[in-house]
Amino acid sequence: MPDEYPYAEIVVDLPLARVDQVYHYRIPKHLRTELCAGARVLVPFGRRELPGYVVGFRAHAAVTPVKDIAGILDANPAFTPELYALARWMAGRYLCTTAQALQCIVAPARQSRPRFEEGVWAVPTAVSDETALTPKQRQVWLAALEHPGLSRAQLALLAGVTPGVVSRLLAKGVLTAARHTVIRDPYPQAAVGAELPRLTGEQLTALETIKRGLDSGRREIYLLHGITGSGKTEIYLRAAAEALARGREALVLVPEITLASQLVRQFKARFGSLVAVLHSGLGTGERYDEWQRIFRGEAPLVVGTRSAVFAPLRNIGLIVLDEEHDGSYKQDENPRYAAGEVARARALLSKAVVLLGSATPALRTYAGALTGEHCRLVRLTKRVDGRTLPKVKLVDLREELLAGNRHVFSRYLADKINERLGKGQQVILFLNRRGYMTVVLCRSCGRPLCCTHCAISLTRHNDGFLRCHYCGYRRPLPQRCPDCGSTELVGFGTGTQRLEEETRRLFPQARVLRLDSDTVARKRTQDRVLAAFREGDADILIGTQMIAKGLDLPGVTLVGVVDADTTLVLPDYQAAERTFQLITQVAGRAGRGPVPGEVVVQTHRPEHYSIQAAVRQDYQRFFFQEMRLRRALGYPPFSVLAQVILRGRQEERVEQAARAFRDLLVAAGDGSVQVMGPAPPPVVKIKDHFRRQLLLKSPKRKALHTLLQVVRDRFDTDYRGRVTVSVDINP
Ligand code: ADP
Ligand code: ZN
Ligand code: ZN
């Protein structure tokens, strides 16, 4: 920094801060050349030294005397000026501090290892006798010929073998080891090439519209409402190419890591090393490398999950939000940001196009598109290649029970599975509950076995342990009921583990794979499982919502929704919407190849309108029915809701605090905001913290927001440190 700006503006990383302020510090002479905006520094604060970020420079300090910056923690910028502007916006929108918003944004920390990794990299040698190699070894050797200089693990991944096979080839001397420095690339295997498909008429029209948006020099928001299999991904790829052609960058967001992997492959196949990836499944080293590559401008295309919305691009022209309705775009801890909202804010800063894609758009989005107020509607109404939407058959589980069938499989679904297996086709079974049995009850006192830290029943897993799906608490199955001592403990409910067991028992000839968060604990297991399934290494894939969304698996001709009611019974005004979305999405996984697909949906409530509409894949029908209900009840999108959660270790104090908070809201409100509660939320205790909730409802977002801001600042400091308050707008 030039000498006329000897002071720095610093956002100090204060724990539990409620004041959002930028502080001024003097830059000691010896640090002046090194310090840039975005650098991480250490500053004296009170009697401590705290980390903070440089966000600007000044000629004069606002207050004197002014303290000196104590030292530099990292001179490399942790964010761009645009991202700092975004953090300020987030602080206002999500009622958090700028420092808290920056926590989501800043570069992944540099680890002790160097950025460039030294390792053993396999290089193929000429082979005198190819036939001396086993088929697997040959695969590795051929892969190494095409991609020399991969690490042992990368090469094994590419060739689809275990690293041991590569080691044996190294030992044989068929591969030689060289020491290289190479950037860690999370997806080395994607091959560039393949001809582009010819766009359908609908796709062409959609792309033309988006191109006009890119040329408009303004932020434009489009809702790409396309049925499942209508070729939305192809639009993302072409739109990204158009952005690149205009010298801009593109950011593509998806809700799940599995989808990110699928999409990365498609993007890399077209754009090669211009693509960077950001998601939580990457190792810390990989994430660091990818972030730096984007920051240096080497990767103008970024694919990733929620937090990738903060990718350090500088000239974004396009932000795609695939499956825009998806709940995973919302962060469930403070700051509770919604990636879609952040994307819109970023697009406004950089005059970019926002492309929201979905077969089942969120009610709010679609309503906004119909009025043309919030975005423009672009439609894809047909599947590509004249493929048909799958036929959906409803099975009434009440009738099954009457007929004496207590199994997870209805007779109809079992028959259909047999039929498809007989033809050598693939099946997906969807169940949105992991574990073995979902609840263990005591026959004597009727109480379920609960987590000692959370007010929630424990799930039995097939390793014999009981697990809490909220906090991870684990215990062996007890001999006796902890409440009454009875030995009559019985499990109920079916999770994916039990479904897998039943499937193997009923269809012993089938090869079965399972994908849920219990099986993907290890890095990239899900990629491997999906790749194996896609290659036809298995007949049946069982999974939770991880497999519901967006996956393109052309071999699948039958999808079974084992229990459609799991989301319908949730105590949430969006239960019907979630159910409709989930069933439509899962159903959309069938018949994406040349063979038409079929879907079987098992439910206890076949007459429910969300299930009826999903069966017909009729978005409009669902939309208008649900909107009528929401309007009648005053729920979003006809109002804005906010949920205030207070939590602490002492239940009484939390209750007191909640009442005090309510009183403040009522006193400060002008009547336009309705306040409900305090009431115990569906789960009253999580991780030993008791919870109370207040629900706020208002037709006007602004009124609600201002009220919350005022009350939060006035809220009694007596509770500080004992009761924490978090605010979630449109929970
Ligand atoms: P969606 O995301 O809308 O569910 P996808 O983008 O996954 O659908 O497309 C479904 C399938 O159709 C994919 O296998 C894709 O490669 C293929 N596809 C997309 N557009 C075309 C096209 N214009 N011509 C031929 N195939 C296409
Ligand atoms: Zn008991
Ligand atoms: Zn728990």
List keywords for this structure.
731 residues; alpha/beta; GIY-YIG endonuclease; Rossmann fold; 6 domains; seven-stranded parallel β-sheet; six-stranded parallel β-sheet; 31 strands; globular; binds adenosine-5'-diphosphate; binds zinc ion
Task: Report on this structure.
- The chain has 6 domains: 7-110, GIY-YIG endonuclease, CATH 3.40.1440; 115-182, no CATH class; 201-385, Rossmann fold; 391-434 and 495-630, Rossmann fold (3-Layer(aba) Sandwich), CATH 3.40.50.300; 439-492, no CATH class; 640-729, Alpha-Beta Plaits.
- With 731 residues, it is α/β, with parallel strands linked by helices.
- The protein is globular, with a radius of gyration of 28 Å.
- It contains 20 helices and 31 strands.
- A 7-stranded parallel β-sheet has the order 11-12-10-13-14-9-15, with helices on both faces.
- The two termini are 44 Å apart.
- The structure holds adenosine-5'-diphosphate and zinc ion (2 copies).
- Residues 451, 453-454, 468, 470-471, 473 line the site of one zinc ion.
Would you state the CATH class of the largest domain? Alpha Beta
Task: Determine the structural class based on helices, strands and strand pairing.
Answer: alpha/beta
CATH structural fold name of the largest domain: Rossmann fold
- Looking at this structure, what is the CATH superfamily of the largest domain? P-loop containing nucleotide triphosphate hydrolases
What secondary-structure arrangement, pairings included, does this model have?
Layout: E1 7-12, E2 22-26, E3 40-45, E4 48-58, E5 71-74, H1 81-93, H2 98-105, E6 117-124, H3 135-146, E7 150-151, H4 152-159, H5 163-172, E8 175-182, H6 201-215, E9 220-226, H7 232-245, E10 249-253, H8 257-271, E11 275-278, H9 284-295, E12 301-304, E13 316-322, H10 339-350, E14 353-358, H11 363-371, E15 376-380, E16 391-396, H12 397-402, H13 411-422, E17 426-430, E18 439-442, E19 459-460, E20 465-467, E21 474-476, E22 489-492, H14 496-506, E23 512-515, H15 525-534, E24 540-543, E25 556-561, H16 575-587, E26 598-603, H17 609-615, H18 619-633, E27 640-648, H19 651-668, E28 674-679, E29 685-686, E30 689-698, H20 701-714, E31 723-729
Parallel strand pairs: 9-14, 9-15, 10-12, 10-13, 11-12, 13-14, 16-26, 17-24, 17-25, 23-24, 25-26
Antiparallel strand pairs: 1-2, 1-4, 3-4, 3-5, 6-7, 6-8, 18-22, 19-20, 20-21, 27-30, 27-31, 28-30, 29-30
Helix pairs in contact: 1-2, 1-10, 3-4, 3-5, 4-5, 6-7, 16-17, 17-18, 19-20
The protein binds adenosine-5'-diphosphate and zinc ion (ZN) (2 copies).
Adenosine-5'-diphosphate is lined by residues 197-200, 203, 226, 228-234, 384-385, 552, 592.
